[in-house]
Amino acid sequence: AAISHGRVHRRLGLGPRSRLDLLRNLVTALVRHERIEAPWARADEMRGYAERLIEYAKLGDTNERAMRMANFWLTEKDLIHKLFKVLAPRFQPHPGSYTRLLQIPNRDGLDRAKMAVIELKGNPFPPLICPRRDTEKTLLNQLLKGYREDMQRAAAP
Fold first, then answer.
1. How large is the greatest C-alpha to C-alpha distance in the chain, in angstroms?
2. Three-state SS sequence of 69-112
3. 109 near 39, Cβ under 8 Å?
4. pLDDT per residue over 100-142, tens digit each?
5. From the CB of residue 19, how many other CB atoms can be counted at a distance below 10 Å?
6. How many CB atoms lie within 10 A of CB 24?
């Protein structure tokens, strides 16, 4: 991986305007559907903006800055009501980390892009299974299990 001197964000889309439009559409889709599929880079980049938007929404719809942020980031204006009346109360007790980002299999087709599912926590959908690394089927745990059995056999006679 190259060292990113002076680079603050990924270069998505065809330019700065296109990048912002893409991110605004993704944030809007996330607020509308509460779970979306997107390429990993786009989902990861959009995550910070979605979290910040929810932080502002928690300030309430009387806050002028929160309303300006919602007006900018949500391209479909009927979602502003949902942001302030549904999502903000849901996340009010939480201090942060309102989204969950999970990797899914790569996209089929020519590019085989690394894909992700990004979702708002507490959504009404059934939970996605998180891959567990510490199952007994991993090589390390199989070796440890064999070692323990050998030690028990050696100590038994």
1. 78
2. HHHHHCCCCCHHHHHHHHHHHHHCCCCCCCEEEEEECCCCCCCC
3. no
4. 999 988 888 888 999 999 999 988 888 887 666 677 778 888 8
5. 17
6. 16
CA distance 83 to 11: 28
What b/e string do you get for 105-137 counting C-beta neighbours within 10 Å, with b at 16 or more? eeeeeeeeeebbbbbbeeeeeeeeeeeeeeeee
- Classify residue 58 by its DSSP letter: T
Contact call for residues 31 and 87 (beta carbons, < 8 A): yes
99-104 vs 35-39, strand pairing mode: unpaired
What element of type H or E holds 120?
Answer: strand 115-120
**Cα distances (Å, whole numbers) of residue 126 to 8, 115, 119, 129:** 35, 19, 11, 9
SS3 37: strand
Number of residues that this document lists for the chain: 157
pLDDT (tens digit per residue) in 43-86 = 999 999 999 999 999 998 899 999 999 999 999 999 999 999 99
**Interatomic CA distance for residues 103 and 38, integer angstroms:** 10
- Contact residues for 60 (Cβ-Cβ < 8 A; gap 6+): 66, 84, 88
Report yes or no on whether pTM surpasses 0.90: no
